[in-house]
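Subject: sequence -> structure tokens, single chain

Hey, anyone have a minute? Need the predicted structure for the following. Not urgent.
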Amino acid sequence: MNLDQYLPVLLFILVGLAVGVVPLALGYILGPNRPDPAKNSPYECGFEAFEDARMKFDVRYYLVAILFILFDLEIAFLFPWAVSLQEVGVTGFVAVLIFLAVLVVGFAYEWKKGALDWE
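Reply:
Had a minute. Here:
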């Protein structure tokens, strides 16, 4: 068995680990660590993390997250179309215009219903 064939794979693994671990270690070693109550407070979820698990919370968190994922994924479908615009021709262009029209109508509907309002 010739081990020279495995050298590129080993180097690839070592470089990948170094790219992942070295910045984390440098940030931990060189970064400032001055926690205070504001930095340790809960964020993004809107309620205390260490309270009763059966407490009620607002369903708007889920609604906004679902709407973000929905519209974000639909926009992500535009990237392959933009790359292959010359190959799809006028038919593909009209199809994407219809797709965007449906997207804009759905977004306007959600906006009008107040699903994007936080108050």
